[in-house]
Amino acid sequence: MEDIATAIATPNIALVKYWGKRNDRLILPENDSVSITLDESVKTTTTVLFSDRLSRDAFYIDGSESKIEGVTATAMDVLMQIKKMANEKRHVLIASENTFPSGTGLASSASGSMALVYAACSALKLEIDAKGLSMLARQASGSACRSAYGGFVRWLKGSNDDGSDSYAKQIADEKHWNEVIDIIAIVDQKKKKVASREGQALTKETSKLYALRKEIAQEHADAAENAIIEKDFERLAMLIMTESNNMHAVMTDTFPPLLYLNDVSKSIIYAIHELNESSGSAIAAYTFDAGPNAHIITKKQNVHEVTEMLEGIEGIRNIIECRQGSGPRLSDASVIKDEMYV
Amino acid sequence: MEDIATAIATPNIALVKYWGKRNDRLILPENDSVSITLDESVKTTTTVLFSDRLSRDAFYIDGSESKIEGVTATAMDVLMQIKKMANEKRHVLIASENTFPSGTGLASSASGSMALVYAACSALKLEIDAKGLSMLARQASGSACRSAYGGFVRWLKGSNDDGSDSYAKQIADEKHWNEVIDIIAIVDQKKKKVASREGQALTKETSKLYALRKEIAQEHADAAENAIIEKDFERLAMLIMTESNNMHAVMTDTFPPLLYLNDVSKSIIYAIHELNESSGSAIAAYTFDAGPNAHIITKKQNVHEVTEMLEGIEGIRNIIECRQGSGPRLSDASVIKDEMYV
C-alpha cells in the first residue's frame, strides 16, 4: 500500500530578521520576525511517499540522492515526528525539486522544509492547519515556518519552553497590499559564508550588543506589523533598512566577526539611499540576510527606476523580480521517478 | 619683535576607540579611549611665529596656504584661546609639514593639532605641562589629546561640563613594553568616507545600539589598561579586535550606515584570525578607524609572519611599520620660509 502527496512552497524574505535562538533543538527564536512570502517564481516542489515496497528511507534533491546530514537531517527528524503522529511505520521516499533560477543565492531551506512537512502530513492524511504546519516547519528550519502563509507573515517567538506558542501568523494576505514586491539582486560572492546556524550561535555567545538587539528587533516587529496594516510604505521602508543594518551590526560585533556584506552590497546600499534622497521619500528599501545578495523591497510603480539603478552597479549577476505569493499548496504532479525506489 | 617655536608630534592609533561626543564644542567624548603613540616614521612638524611684521594670520600646510575651514578652523579657535591666555595681540604665522609617506591614509589631524598647540604655547612661553597640552589639543581635534605622551595613553572622558577633567594620561611610557608595534596596511579605497565628525554625530543620533556601545567601550578601556600594565599580549589582542568590531558594529547600525570596511579590510580580518588560529594564540590584532586601512598590532618578534601574511593579500597598497613613539618634542628647525610672511 502506498500513500503519496505533493506540495509546493515558496521562500520568504524577512523584513524583521531572525538571528539567534532561545532554544537550539526546538528552534525557538529570541525575537519575533516579519516576512513577505514570495510568489512561485522561486519555489520547491516536494513529493512524499510512504510505501511497503521501500527497503529504506531515501531523500532526493533535484534528482540526486541526498546524504542525511545538515538541514536534511533536521528535516528527517521532523518527518519522524510526523510519522509518530500518524502511527506510521513504513519507509518514506522524498523527492524535492527547486525551480530557483541557477545561482540565485537563495536558500531553499525555507520552501523545502515547508513543502516537505505539508506533503508528509497530507500523504498521511493528518488533520493539520497552517499554524500546525508552521510549527513543524519551524523545527526543520526556523524561518521556514513563515512560509506557511502568503502575503505578510509574523513568526511569534513565544515564551513556552516546549515551543507550543512559537508559530507563524498571517499579518495580511497577498491581496491586502500587493503593490509591495521584492527585487532580488544576486551579487558575486568571493568568500564562503559562515553557515547561519553556526553564525547565530556565535553571535549569541560573543556579541556584547546582542542583548539590546533582541529588544530592538522585537520593537521592529511590532512597528513593521503596524506599517503593513496601515500600508505606510515610507515607514516600512525606513524600518526595513534600519533592521537590516541592525542585524548586520551584531554580526559585525560577533567574534570572529561575520561580515556578510561585500563591496557590491555596499554600493547597492548607498545607491538606494541616493535614490530615496533624490525621490524625496523612501521608495525602496534594502535588506540582506546572511550573505551579500540584496533584496530590494519596493512598490510595483517603482520597479523601473529600481531596476535601472541596479543595472548601473558593477558586480550584480542577476536581478529577479518576485511578487507576493499566496502560501503553500498541494499539487497532483509527483516529482518521484521510478528509479528513485530503493 | 618676533616669538617663534617649532614642535614635532606624531599620530596615535586607538586600541579602544573614540566614536561619539558628549559635548560637540568642547570635544568631550562619551567614553575613555586608549592608544599607542607612534614613532616619528610618521610625524608633523609645526612652527608658530608671532610677529609685529605680519599684516594678518596665515596657516601653511605642506608649503601651501590653507583655507581656515574644517579642522584648521577649529585649530585656529584653540590658537585664539592660547593667545588670550598669554594676552597676545600680534598676528600669527603657522607652517606645518607632514612627513607621512604619500597615500598613507593616515589623518594628520592628531599630530598636527598637538604640534600646533605645543609650538604656540612654547613661542608664547606659557608654562604648560603635557596634561594642559592634551586639553588644548583635544579641543582642536579630539583624539589629538592622546598624542601628548609617548607609549600607551588613555584619554579620560571626564564628567565635568566644562571639560576640565577630560584629558590624556600616560598608562605606560614607550620603554615599558616596547615590543608592541603597529603595522599599517594601506588599502585601496574606492568610496570617499563620511567625515568622522559628521559620522560620529550621526551614530549618536540614529544608532539604537549606541547606548550600550558607550558602556562596552568604557569597560574595554579599563581592561586594555590592565592588559598593558600586565603586558598580557593575548588579552590585549583579543580586546583590540573585539573593540574594533564593536565600533564598526555601531557604525553599521547608523542610518544611513557607515560601512568603512571594504573587501580588502575583510580579507585582512579573516587572515589575522587564521594566523592566530594556526599560531595557537593571538599574536596579532587588527584595528580599523573610520576607513578601510588596517592597523595590525603585534610584537616585534612576529613582524615577519604578519608582513608575509599581508603581502599575500590582494589590494594592499603599502605596508608601514611603526614603533612606539616618545611623544611630542620641541625642535630648532623652523619650517617657516621667507615667502610665507604676509
What does this structure look like?
2 copies of one chain form a homodimer. The longest helix of chain A is centred in the middle third of the chain and has 20 residues, at 210-229. The first copy, chain A, has 8 helices and 16 strands. Chain A is α+β, with helices and mostly antiparallel strands. In chain A, the strands form 4 sheets. Chain A has a 6-stranded mixed β-sheet. In chain A, strands 2-5-10-11 form a 4-stranded antiparallel β-sheet. Chain A has helices spanning 71-85, 109-123, 130-141, 196-206, 210-229, 233-252, 263-279, 303-311, and strands spanning 2-9, 12-16, 21-23, 28-29, 33-37, 44-51, 58-61, 64-65, 91-98, 152-155, 168-172, 180-187, 284-287, 294-299, 316-322, 329-331.
Any descriptors?
homodimer; 342 residues; alpha+beta; six-stranded mixed sheet; four-stranded antiparallel sheet; 16 strands; 35% helix; 24% strand; globular
Order of helices and strands of chain A: EEEEEEEEHEHHEEEHHHHEEHEE
Which structural class fits the helix and strand makeup of chain A?
alpha+beta
Quaternary structure of the protein: homodimer
DSSP E strands of chain A, number: 16
With strands numbered from the N-terminus, the spatial order across the biggest sheet of chain A is 8-7-9-6-1-16
Content of β-strand of chain A:
15-25%
Largest interface: A-B, 31 and 31 residues
| Helical content band of chain A | 25-40%
Helix count from the secondary structure assignment of chain A: 8
Low-pLDDT runs of 5+ residues of chain A are none
Largest sheet descriptor of chain A = 6 strands, mixed
Distance between the termini of chain A: 15 Å
Mean pLDDT value of chain A: 94
Global geometry of chain A: globular
